[in-house]
Amino acid sequence: MKMFDLNNLIRQNLKGLKPYSSARDEYVSDGSEMIFLDANENPFQNGVNRYPDPQQRSLKSILAQHKGIRQENILLGNGSDEVLDLLYRAFCEPKVDNIITLPPTYGMYKVLADINVVENREVLLMDDFQPNVASILKNVDTRTKLLFLCTPNNPTGNSFAAESIEFLLQSFQGLVVIDEAYIDFSSEESWVSKLSEYPNLVVTQTLSKAYGMAGIRLGICIASEEIISVLNKIKPPYNVNELTQQRALERVLNLEEINKEVENILKERRVLEQSLKTIQFVEQVYPTDANFILARVDDASLRYGQLLEKGIVIRNRTTQPLCENTLRFTVGTHRENEKLIESLKELS
Question: Residue ranges of the Aminotransferase class I/classII large domain (predicted)?
């Protein structure tokens, strides 16, 4: 690839920005018994009366070990949505720059573009739900800052071809943001392993899916130290609260339990895939690397409503490009999946 220069991407007003320095940035505890009179906190101990670590050092240390990277390569956010928003605010000039998304895909990319007044150039996936590389590059100009690749993709469930992603990383001079929210359910290798090869690579992950912690809202951004330092300049000082840090740390230290749950979900996914193929009105079940299955049916809106009446909530994706009359089924517990299939058979 051409010589990548991050400085060309950073918004001009941020280049000389002096970030806010919080009390806990200026003094980092080494574990010694200290009297803290620096942050205007309530002094009476209740477990959360002190501000949280603004850099989430303990949690980052464990995550870095798990992923084979350094803490300096990690930024944590209040859900992945905050991480994505920071990327827009750091690298996209409102009313000037543009980004590229590949519908059908995660809807927040477009929403965040609208919020940040950044043009969203949509390049439809091909009929096999793979990126149209030639069309993507045709839509790139000197103001294209971000390219979003969701793989495994939501709502289609498939992973993008590695050759296509590598070609885009080599050809595109902006940041290639690979959203790996569902990577733990895939046999594909995480792009985190390619971090040292591509300076324009940004990988986002989450604790909401495989880690089973959607309720605590914690997203992960993995990139070069240079990119992370830019994002750290503009993130809120205490963006990940103390309760979230505590619960996340407890969970990530229990990889054995997480792996068991993922194995169970994959087992149930295989059963659900086969069962869906036996339903009369299911016309196609798409291959998936995620914890959900996309299926084309005869009438998605009708079937969605019928399942609601039976007490089952799924996702109707029929309004999405290339997804007419499709339903998205999250893989549930064994009992939940049995109830789903039983209900679908009754509707047949």
Answer: 45-344
